[in-house]
Amino acid sequence: MIKKSNSRKALQTGPLESVFPGSTSKILDFLATFKEWDYSVSDIAKNSGISFKTALNEIKNLEQQGVLSRTRTVGKAIMYKMNLDSKQGFYIDKLIFELATKRALESSETKTKTKVTA
Which CATH architecture has domain 15-111? Predict the structure, then answer.
């Protein structure tokens, strides 16, 4: 069986994935980063770098927990996005933002120290 590479993944390693590796973290990182739009299961799978079947299972779980919500149907595709109206969705989005901010500040400090010592 030939395995496709995940070269089309939207994010290298998202903030949540860097702390909690796994499919759910990849999905949440992608949807939190691009939360202005809604996506089909296949779009989420492709941009998160996971298989369609894994994405389908994880999305069902996240929807049951209120983290994701269905927004509309386009043809046969059901579209999803982060549910920022739920407490879980709101706080997960906030956590991802805080982790990204921390990572950006650490990266900035490292670059500054490298320039000073060079």
Answer: Orthogonal Bundle (1.10)
